[in-house]
Design brief:
Largest sheet: none
Structural class: mainly alpha
Order of helices and strands: HHHHHH
Radius of gyration: 18 Å
Number of helices: 6
Number of domains: 1
Number of strands: 0
Shape: flat
Distance between the termini: 23 Å
Helix content: over 70%
Strand content: under 5%
């Protein structure tokens, strides 16, 4: 059986989501201390609230103009904007698409996630990776 680490490592390295057992316990312990601080909670709450307001504004504008929007993609962009701001301190602004680098990163991130997800059903991915095919 393939482990999550093998499948996810090209996208997220050996971070907490891609390791097992002792390494996971160690990383969880370190992360839980950092993420449980009041400053981090307050900052992340503020970021999520700010992006929720941006999201609501975009939806309201679309409704007012009777414009169709792709809501799932918008929710994903809101989540990505929030997480990147919290953990990296970078404003991607992918919801509005005003940051060219943010849009590029978002598209690359989506593609990497889709390719990684495909590895769960494609049993030949390791061979193709080794041969640099695809």
């Amino acid at each position: 059986m393939r482990g999550f680490g093998d499948i996810l490592s090209d996208v997220i390295g050996d971070a907490i989501f891609a390791v097992d057992r002792e390494r996971w316990q160690h990383q969880r312990k370190v992360a839980s201390y950092e993420l449980s601080t009041k400053v981090m909670r307050d900052f992340s709450s503020a970021v999520f609230k700010t992006n929720a307001v941006k999201l609501a504004h975009i939806i309201s504008e679309a409704a007012t103009c009777d414009q169709a929007i792709e809501i799932q993609g918008l929710f994903m962009k809101a989540s990505l904007d929030s997480v990147v701001k919290i953990f990296l301190g970078i404003e991607l602004n992918t919801m509005r698409g005003t940051n060219e680098e943010g849009t590029w990163f978002s598209n690359a991130f989506d593609e990497a996630n889709a390719n990684t997800l495909y590895r769960y059903v494609d049993f030949s991915w390791k061979i193709r990776l080794f041969l640099n095919i695809g």
